[in-house]
Specification:
globular, alpha+beta
């Protein structure tokens, strides 16, 4: 299993951060892997969603199923299908899981993101480590930074209007 974990403090309470990360329509605002996202069906545990983005210069679509759902605390999903330029993507991992966990701390929320991939085999694992991990880390950092920007802006807007 190849695991990448990153965290950072984010302004706002876990409930405020949750309102952003649980809304599929807002996923493209904070989740750097997605240029847009859509709800396929359901809600909460078992929800199916699709993200659209770019991977290695190609149009990427990923169908996902929510496998962890603890309102205000954690959400996680696994990849069901991955497509590049409309065709099935080369299979590098037997399983891809992504989780976001929220933990209240003084002054805000600690957001932890975790990506886990189980490579198809040794050589695919080497490729993931050599090429994919840099992209995953970069996008996770961007996602955490975006969450902080959104949370800070929404807190400021609340202060001005409240």
């Amino acid at each position: 299993m190849i695991t990448v974990v990153m965290d950072r403090p984010v302004s706002g309470s876990p409930d405020q951060v949750w309102a952003v990360i649980d809304d599929v329509e807002r996923m493209s605002e904070w989740f750097a892997f997605a240029d847009r996202a859509e709800l396929i069906e359901g809600s909460g545990l078992g929800r199916r969603q699709r993200t659209h983005g770019t991977w290695s210069g190609k149009a990427a679509e990923v169908d996902q199923e929510v496998t962890l759902y603890e309102p205000g605390r954690a959400i996680g999903w696994r990849h069901l299908e991955e497509r590049l330029d409309g065709r099935p993507a080369p299979k590098f991992a037997e399983e891809v899981v992504f989780c976001v966990r929220l933990e209240e701390e003084p002054g805000g929320t600690r957001v932890t993101m975790e990506s886990r991939q189980r490579p198809v085999g040794f050589l695919k694992g080497v490729l993931i480590r050599l090429v994919g991990l840099v992209q995953i880390r970069t996008q996770m950092k961007r996602s955490l930074d975006r969450l902080e920007s959104i949370a800070a802006a929404e807190l400021c807007a609340g202060v001005r209007t409240g």
